[in-house]
């Protein structure tokens, strides 16, 4: 048999593999345009009942930080909330909250009832700062390095797996100043 | 019977009937109709990030509404279409454009079909040429055995002479 008869078969296998890989991708996950870029310029007042608001300068303190976009009306935020509380107890990096399009009284109640994992919390009432961050759904979580560059973005609720395999190792690498192998 | 058939036809025709008025979002329209038309045009080119295969002009998602508002604001400021699109591309990436841009990264996407067409055409052409150029087997006279066989075959097919 001539080798050239194998070409269609090879093509079929190649295309099949390509499509198989394509099927495993999650079309809901949009790669952030902001990875490797500095955080957008913004300054937000604190949410009701809190002292510290959130601004771009707070994220350029030389210390890496976590920015969690959340809202009291967002059910998955409730799911990831205990994990954020646990992450806060680890003291790896400050966690800041970006409260997206929320009612001031609702978010105050939310933080009082469930606990407040955030060092600073900015109230983004009209969602404009969220759009500057490329947010298209809550919750979203960003890892920012000490210089204020966005290193990683996680879309959707954080699961224990994400905390253990992405967030914690990445924060440790950033704190140690070494190149991270963590894929975002 | 006829009535239900007519009803079915009407149902089919429904989506094709002109009905853009139904899909319009009436929030904060721009006073200037030309600017409003431009804002709509731009919004139609932007993908809604929540319901992915709709443009923000078609989508009811709150984020789409916010993005429409941003588009209107920027148009009202007198920005060009391209500047408005760039504003959102900077935040959401090129993914937000329903029509991908023609650049180096997207080159394969754009010229891929043409490349495949050329490849297929090239293969067909090469095969065709090879077939035409292949030397035809040299003709030679039949030898005696072949002559006899030919005659026998021809005789077989000949109808019996009628009496």
Question: What does this 3D model show about the protein?
Answer:
The complex is a heterodimer of chains A (184) and B (163). Helices cover 37% and strands 17% of the residues of chain A. Chain A is an alpha/beta fold and 184 residues long. Chain A has a single domain (32-176), classed as 3-Layer(aba) Sandwich (Glutaredoxin), CATH 3.40.30. Chain A has a five-stranded mixed β-sheet. In chain A, helix 3 links the parallel strand 4 and strand 5. Chain A starts with 5 loop residues before the first helix and ends in an 8-residue tail after the last helix. With 163 residues, chain B is mainly α. Among the domains of chain B are: 23-99, Cytochrome C biogenesis protein (Helicase, Ruva Protein, domain 3, Orthogonal Bundle); 102-131. Chain B has helices at 2-13, 20-23, 33-44, 62-76, 81-92, 107-133, 144-157. The model of chain B is unreliable at 16-23 (pLDDT under 50). Chain A binds chain B through residues 27-28, 30-34, 40, 101, 126-128, 131-134, 136-137, and chain B through 49-50, 52, 62-63, 66-67, 70, 89-95.
Write down the overall geometry of chain B. Answer: elongated
Stretches of chain B where pLDDT is under 50 for at least 5 consecutive residues are 16-23
Main sheet overview of chain B: none
Query: Strand-and-helix sequence of chain B, N→C?
Result: HHHHHHH
- What name goes with the CATH superfamily of chain A? Glutaredoxin
Number of helices of chain B: 7
CATH topology grouping of one domain in chain B: Helicase, Ruva Protein, domain 3
Strand content of chain A: 15-25%
**What's the rounded overall pLDDT mean of chain A?**
93
Rg of chain A computed from alpha carbons, rounded to a whole number of angstroms: 20 Å
* Cα distance spanning the termini of chain B: 68 Å
Structural topology:
The complex is a heterodimer of chains A (184) and B (163).
Chain A: H1 6-24, E1 43-44, E2 54-55, E3 65-70, H2 75-90, E4 95-100, H3 104-114, E5 121-124, H4 128-132, E6 140-144, E7 150-155, H5 160-176
Parallel strand pairs in A: 3-4, 4-5
Antiparallel strand pairs in A: 1-2, 3-6, 6-7
Chain B: H1 2-13, H2 20-23, H3 33-44, H4 62-76, H5 81-92, H6 107-133, H7 144-157
Helix pairs in contact in B: 3-4
């Amino acid at each position: 048999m001539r080798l050239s008869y194998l070409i269609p078969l090879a093509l079929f296998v190649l295309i099949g593999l390509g499509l198989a890989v394509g099927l495993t991708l999650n079309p809901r996950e949009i790669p952030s345009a902001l990875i490797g870029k500095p955080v957008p310029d913004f300054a937000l007042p604190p949410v009701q009942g809190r002292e510290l608001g959130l601004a771009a300068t707070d994220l350029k303190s030389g210390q890496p930080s976590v920015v969690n976009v959340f809202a009291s009306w967002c059910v998955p935020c409730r799911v990831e909330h205990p994990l954020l509380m646990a992450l806060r107890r680890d003291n790896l990096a400050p966690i800041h909250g970006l409260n997206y399009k929320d009612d001031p009284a609702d978010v105050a109640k939310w933080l009082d009832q469930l606990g407040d994992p955030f060092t600073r919390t900015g109230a983004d009432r009209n969602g404009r700062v969220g759009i500057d961050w490329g947010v298209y759904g809550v919750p979203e979580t960003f890892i920012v390095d000490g210089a204020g560059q966005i290193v990683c973005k996680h879309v959707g609720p954080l699961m224990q797996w994400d905390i253990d395999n992405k967030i914690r190792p990445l924060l440790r690498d950033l704190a140690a100043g070494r190149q991270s192998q963590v894929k975002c | 019977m006829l009535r239900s058939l007519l009803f079915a036809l009407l149902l089919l025709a429904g989506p094709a009937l002109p009905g853009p008025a139904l899909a319009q979002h009436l929030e904060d329209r721009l006073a200037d109709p030309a600017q409003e038309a431009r804002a709509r045009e731009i919004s139609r080119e932007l993908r809604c990030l929540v319901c992915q295969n709709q443009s923000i002009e078609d989508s009811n998602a709150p984020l789409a509404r916010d993005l429409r508002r941003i588009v209107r604001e920027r148009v009202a400021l007198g920005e060009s279409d391209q500047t408005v699109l760039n504003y959102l591309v900077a935040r959401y990436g090129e993914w937000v454009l329903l029509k991908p841009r023609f650049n180096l990264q997207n080159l394969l996407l754009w010229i891929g079909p043409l490349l495949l067409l050329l490849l297929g055409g090239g293969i067909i052409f090469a095969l065709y040429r090879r077939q035409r150029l292949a030397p035809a087997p040299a003709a030679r006279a039949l030898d005696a055995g072949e002559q006899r066989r030919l005659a026998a075959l021809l005789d077989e097919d000949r109808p019996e002479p009628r009496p």
